User: Fold Polyprenyl synthetase family protein from Microvirga puerhi.
Amino acid sequence: MMSSTGSFMTRLSDVARDVEACLETLLSNEAHSGEMARPARLISAMRHAALGGGKRLRPFLTIETARLFSRSGAGPLRTGSAIELLHCYSLVHDDLPSMDDDDLRRGRPTVHKAFDEATAILAGDALQTLAFEVLADPATDADGSVRADLVLGLARASGLGGMVGGQQLDLAAEGRYGVAELGENEIRLLQMMKTGALLTFSVQAGAILGRADQERRQALRIYGRALGAAFQVADDILDREASAESLGKRTGKDLEKGKATLVDHLGMEGAKRECRRLVSEAQEALGVFGPAAETLREAVRFVAEREV
Amino acid sequence: MMSSTGSFMTRLSDVARDVEACLETLLSNEAHSGEMARPARLISAMRHAALGGGKRLRPFLTIETARLFSRSGAGPLRTGSAIELLHCYSLVHDDLPSMDDDDLRRGRPTVHKAFDEATAILAGDALQTLAFEVLADPATDADGSVRADLVLGLARASGLGGMVGGQQLDLAAEGRYGVAELGENEIRLLQMMKTGALLTFSVQAGAILGRADQERRQALRIYGRALGAAFQVADDILDREASAESLGKRTGKDLEKGKATLVDHLGMEGAKRECRRLVSEAQEALGVFGPAAETLREAVRFVAEREV
Assistant:
């Protein structure tokens, strides 16, 4: 049971270390069960994209949610790592010249800068595939229908109606395909798709592994959605406030690209108020779990306040 | 039971029509079960990539293999369509300017030409995701472990150690990353990864749906591999012989890019002999199924002789 921010941060970094080790194994040359070759340049690019950094927030949510149901070990770790692989693929493709055209990510060269554009596209493609491979593998859960549910949930959160669809709307919001003035509700939808859906699924995945009943599944759904929304409002606030130095990537980008954010609609103070409201909503949804959910309660506060 | 090429062609086009209808449903705006928006431009690009053409050879193999085990209907059709979605995603990404830089595909503009590069990348991404979503959906098979097996098989055939890895090796074979002189065995490995693995899985998927025993699974594995290899040798022969008009895409490309093919190593006559050998190997592997496998026997002949 975590109660102080200090022990929360310890727990977060412990999980990040486990996830790093799991990803290292999944992306090593020896780990593969098939007979085919694994092209060295492609693996290097995948490793560049997935290893050595990040808070591993999504796996943390999966692992901590599974712990509510006394599930721990390889299943939640592999599931969280698969979600992280999916997240990393999306970053590689979002950074491409024809998309957001970013040269830096977490202070390091993006994959198409460190390698080349073709390799970056293929590395993203293969990271996506690997995410589904990991989920479908019997090592993740003995029960095939649990594995199929995980695959289905991840696919819905990350495809046309989720993350990828959100990225497409985001490009449109920059005015690439004609004038696009987004209202508050459209911004919320875009954000829910682009970022929120995968965060929400990170929580749901823990519930799937834990064979949660309907009541608990629903509580975690509300929690996950509010957390995802809080994450994005905090991101909008960060984008407006933070300096390039402290983040290791270019900021004020939304402003630069003329893209509307919730800060435009709600004002800075309104956005911060909305963020606090979402934190409360998420925390209250966890009532059914009692003190066992303290880490998840801290997680949403952490997400909302991470640099704000 | 098919015995003449006429009835084989009828069967092939009947299945292609069923697959087209299935893909149309999967890519319609109404079909989605989630609550999220489906961005119109992205769906249009996915439809451009996946609808309106092709022999649908991979779904045909899945559906005809499943029929050996008296499985027909939605399961094999959805599985075959998922493999086709995966195949279409690979074509969209392979055509990109930073990859093969093709303007035409089946005589129509490629996705990045008809839309734009960012949309083409995202459409490919979402087609891959949709393939896994379709396989993991209970509508494909009542048994969760069958669905998980299908996902696992498709992921292994199409990821780092399969199709995507093969594409990376193919780029390297053009000499992009330094001099690359491929020997005969390296060309075979590259081709097995890039094209063969997905064709082989198309057959295996039918065996998974049919709950095939080990003996039949092994026979179909040999069949699938020989068919995949025959497909690629025929492709190399085609690339050297066919004219741009008859294919609707640029040909002689391998030659143009200085890329070695099996025709270089075996000579034209040797390549044709190898192709015939592979057809025999594939057909003989089907012995255990007796006359019921006549369509699959015709399929490998069709693959090997399609334009040669």
Summary: The first helix of chain B runs from residue 5 to 26. Chain B has a mean pLDDT of 90. The longest strand of chain B covers residues 104-105.
